[in-house]
Amino acid sequence: MNIGLTTLVVSAVTISCLHTATGPDHYLPFIVLSRSKKWTMSKTVFWTVLCGFGHILSSVVIGLIGVLLGWQLSKLTWFQDVRGNMSGWCLLGFGVVYLLWGLRQAYLNKPHKHFDVYEGGDIYVYEHRHGDIVYPQNRVKVTPWILFAIFVMGPSEPLVPLLFYSGAHRSSLEVVVLISVFTITTVLTMLAMVLIGCYGYSFLKTDKLERYVHAIGGAVVTMCGIGMVFLGW
Length: 233
Fold this sequence. Notes:
3 strands, membrane
């Protein structure tokens, strides 16, 4: 495995782990549903894995747009001589923009998803800003299939520039490896967090980091871009 692909893989693993572990909505609903509905462990694992793959599906669909853009760009004659440097700069530029956007999102306290648990084990999902009042009519009762729909509609944006970079190099191997690594890491991280919670352990306090999840993803992509452009990764 060459150093460029290694860098992309490490970035994909880091992003998927941080994106999953810092978002309680990736695992808390499964823990609560499992306990309140008295699910078997196999049923808990099934819904966690299914929703994890649904989450990845939307990420990959958006990421393949990045692959297509990079692939088309690589066909231009003038791009052939500079594509390594140009794609690296694009990766760096996206990372910086995404980092700044993530910091702005955290500063402006934009709405984000939350889950409430009621007596009897019912779970409701809603969007809110920190400090805002949420009215009952703004909440939606969570069922396993609604949870699946939520995950399908919530892609992980940092995967896009990584796949764009591979597309610009016309590397099918990189695209397949990145998607595979991102999928496996995300699902395993979700599963690990759910199992840890189901067995009563909670040594990671991630709710404070949730607000900065986009900024963290942007920082990882930025570091990857800096390595590609300036350090010869």
